[in-house]
């Protein structure tokens, strides 16, 4: 049987996760860190591209990793127009729309397929994208806001959410397309989503500041509070609170969950109060997704880096296990999910989805 060589690139705010697979066997996986003081010198995310490329190439050289003959390079996607779940073969239109953030999401994940393209120019191989953050499967009711002409967007950790569903279904011999789940990615960002028969029909806009507050994001607030407390702040400051300096970072001056949790363990009253409030808000959003599924929930699946703290898992079980059984999958399955997508295309199991350059949803007929 042919052995396919698949390289995976997953950019984060201050690091880039890399993994090399031979078929579905992971040969190495690492997290290449980028000095935040250096990244701050680049005015825009796209400006980081060649710097990150240089760091990745240096890493490959230092560890004597040769990508010549690679069959596929998979980059985490983002920032193009909203699309349906699937494996996309990257073409010039997808690259251009991602580079220009046509879909409105401005996030470092947009560098994933751009880095993949740069590496493919050197080493060859097909380029793929799998379940980017702007996967849109919302039901119609989930799109409506209280202001005519403004609609909710689907922005979530779709890659890991979908991958967790597949892992859970394989483990318990379930069919994702016949099941209802509430799936939560809990880390620096938090996504809480309702999955009905294989479709992610609702969830908080994790990229737009909606939902529970997180280590870096302020979460949902009343509009009147926003106007009263934040109205006079520069737009950049408000955006920073939505993405980087809100949530735990606002209270403690750091988003380092390990440091904050150490204060919780020492009995610091403020740390305990804020930490417990974060869990409280997560539970509220899980409860709201239960109503979306009309109480027909086969399981509440938890994933993400913050599950390394058992009190988060136990807090959610206490708050939500009356809805459905709670299952915890600490960490994430993103690298494996990207490799699996490419492998399924390379082996002919599936065909890649074509990116149309148009949003998967463009409005209601009577708009």
TrEMBL record:
<dbReference type="GO" id="GO:0047761">
    <property type="term" value="F:butyrate kinase activity"/>
</dbReference>
<dbReference type="GO" id="GO:0008776">
    <property type="term" value="F:acetate kinase activity"/>
</dbReference>
<dbReference type="GO" id="GO:0005524">
    <property type="term" value="F:ATP binding"/>
</dbReference>
<dbReference type="InterPro" id="IPR043129">
    <property type="entry name" value="ATPase_NBD"/>
</dbReference>
<dbReference type="GO" id="GO:0005737">
    <property type="term" value="C:cytoplasm"/>
</dbReference>
<dbReference type="Pfam" id="PF00871">
    <property type="entry name" value="Acetate_kinase"/>
</dbReference>
<dbReference type="InterPro" id="IPR000890">
    <property type="entry name" value="Aliphatic_acid_kin_short-chain"/>
</dbReference>
<dbReference type="GO" id="GO:0006083">
    <property type="term" value="P:acetate metabolic process"/>
</dbReference>
<protein>
    <recommendedName>
        <fullName>Probable butyrate kinase</fullName>
        <ecNumber>2.7.2.7</ecNumber>
    </recommendedName>
</protein>
<keyword id="KW-0418">Kinase</keyword>
<keyword id="KW-0808">Transferase</keyword>
<keyword id="KW-0547">Nucleotide-binding</keyword>
<keyword id="KW-0067">ATP-binding</keyword>
<comment type="similarity">
    <text>Belongs to the acetokinase family.</text>
</comment>
<dbReference type="InterPro" id="IPR011245">
    <property type="entry name" value="Butyrate_kin"/>
</dbReference>
<keyword id="KW-0963">Cytoplasm</keyword>
């Amino acid at each position: 049987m042919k052995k396919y060589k698949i390289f995976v690139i997953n950019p984060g705010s201050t690091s880039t996760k890399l993994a090399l697979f031979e078929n579905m066997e992971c040969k190495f996986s690492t997290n290449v860190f980028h000095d935040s003081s250096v990244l701050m010198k680049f005015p825009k995310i796209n400006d980081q591209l060649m710097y990150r490329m240089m760091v990745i190439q240096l890493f490959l050289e230092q560890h004597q990793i040769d990508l010549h003959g690679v069959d596929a390079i998979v980059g985490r996607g983002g920032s193009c127009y909203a699309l349906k779940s699937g494996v996309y073969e990257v073409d010039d239109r997808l690259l251009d729309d991602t580079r220009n953030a046509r879909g409105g999401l401005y996030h470092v994940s947009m560098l994933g397929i751009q880095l993949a393209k740069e590496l493919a120019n050197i080493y060859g191989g097909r380029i793929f994208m799998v379940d980017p953050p702007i996967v849109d499967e919302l039901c119609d009711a989930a799109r409506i806001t209280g202001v005519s002409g403004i609609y909710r967007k689907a922005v979530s950790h779709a890659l890991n959410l979908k991958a967790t569903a597949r892992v859970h279904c394989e483990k318990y011999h379930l069919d994702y397309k016949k099941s209802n789940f509430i799936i939560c990615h809990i880390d620096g960002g938090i996504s809480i989503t309702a999955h009905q028969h294989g479709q992610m029909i609702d969830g908080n806009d994790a990229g737009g500041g909606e939902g529970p507050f997180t280590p870096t994001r302020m979460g949902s607030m009343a509009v009147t509070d926003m106007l009263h407390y934040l109205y006079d702040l520069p737009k950049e400051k408000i955006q920073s609170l939505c993405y980087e300096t809100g949530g735990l970072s606002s209270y403690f001056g750091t988003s380092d969950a390990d440091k904050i949790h150490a204060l919780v363990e020492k009995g610091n009253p403020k740390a305990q109060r804020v930490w417990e409030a974060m869990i409280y808000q997560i539970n509220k959003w899980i409860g709201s997704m239960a109503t979306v599924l009309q109480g027909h929930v086969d399981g509440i699946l938890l994933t993400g880096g913050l599950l390394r703290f058992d009190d988060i898992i136990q807090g959610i079980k206490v708050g939500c296990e009356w809805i459905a059984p709670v299952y915890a999958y600490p960490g994430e399955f993103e690298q494996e999910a990207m490799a699996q997508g490419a492998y399924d295309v390379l082996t002919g199991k599936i065909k890649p989805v074509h990116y149309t350059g148009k949003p998967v949803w463009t409005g209601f007929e009577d708009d």
